[in-house]
Amino acid sequence: MFRPGPLIPGAFYARDADLVARDLLGQLLVDGAVALRITEVEAYGGPEDSASHARMGQTPRNQIMWGPGGHAYLYLCYGIHWMLNVVAGPLGQSSAVLIRACEPIAGLDTLLARRRKSRVAPDLLAGPGRVAQALALNGEFNGLALFRPGQLELRRGTPPDSIVAGPRVGIGYATTEDQSALRRFATGASRWVSRPKLC
DNA sequence: CGCCGGATTTAA
DNA sequence: TAAATCCGGCGA
To answer: Strand C: which nucleotides have any atom within 7 A of a protein Cβ?
Structure first.
C-alpha cells in the first residue's frame, strides 16, 4: 500500500512562480487512494505576463490567483476540460503553476476508470485536461487549500534527477516574448510528459 | 446582451 | 483535421 509523504507547508508556495513550478516537479497530488507524481508544469503570471489569465486584471474567474499561495485555481478550457493550477508567488502577485502531466503512483484502477482506459499508457496523464479528469476535478475545487488534509492534497515526493525547460503550450495569443519564455518545466528523461516533447 | 475564442482532447 | 461544448470577457 502506498504511504504518502508529509504535506507541503503553505510557505512553499509564497515564492516566485518559476521557482515553485520547478520545485513542484516530483511532488505528489494525493486524493484518497489516488496519488500522482507531478512530471510537467508551466508557470504563469508575475509582472506583465500576456499569457496569464491575470493579464486583464482581477476578474471573477481569476480572483483566486490573487489570493495566498497553495490554493487550487480551477478553470474550464474549451468548454470541456478542467485545468488544475496551484496559486504561487507573494500575495498580490497573481501567479500560478499549471499542472500539465503526472506519473501514476497509486489508485490505478480508479485512474483508469475515470480516464475510461483499460490499460496504463504513456498518455494516461499527459496533458492538463487528462490530469484533472483523472483526479475528478471540477469548479468545486476552485480555491481549495492544497496544504490542508482532507480532499486534494500536495505532499512531498521524490525530486527529479534533472529538469528540462521549454516554451509554454497553447498561448498563441500572447506576445512573442512571452510565447518564447522558458516557463515550461518537465522532469528530464521521463516518459510521463505531454507533447510537444521537451527532449 | 450577444459574440468570440480558448493554458485541450479525441476520434475520424 | 475538426468537432465537442461552455462561459468569461469585451464591445455594442
So the answer is: 4-10
Higher pLDDT, A199 or A156: A156
Number of domains in chain A: 1
Domain containing A119: what range? 10-187
Residue A193 lies in a domain: no
Residue A100 falls inside a structural domain: yes
Q: Is the CB of A79 under 7 A from strand C?
A: yes
- Nearest nucleotide by C1' from A77 CA? B6
pLDDT tens digits for A126-184?
999 999 999 999 999 999 999 999 999 999 999 999 999 999 999 999 999 999 999 99
**How many degrees, rounded to 5, is the angle at CA A42 between CA A84 and CA A31?**
30
Report if residue A20 sits inside a domain: yes
Instruction: Identify whether A65 is part of a domain.
Output: yes
Element (H, E) at A102: strand A95-106
Q: Identify the helix (H) or strand (E) that includes residue A108.
A: helix A108-115
| Cα–Cα distance for residue pair A197/A199, rounded to 1 Å | 6
* pLDDT tens, position by position, A98-132: 999 999 999 999 999 999 999 999 999 999 999 99
Instruction: Quote the pTM value.
Output: 0.96
Residue A85 belongs to a domain with what CATH number?
3.10.300.10
Whether CB of A6 is under 7 Å from strand C: the answer is: no
CA A107 to C1' C7 (Å) is 32
Distance in Å from C7's C1' to A137's CA comes to 17
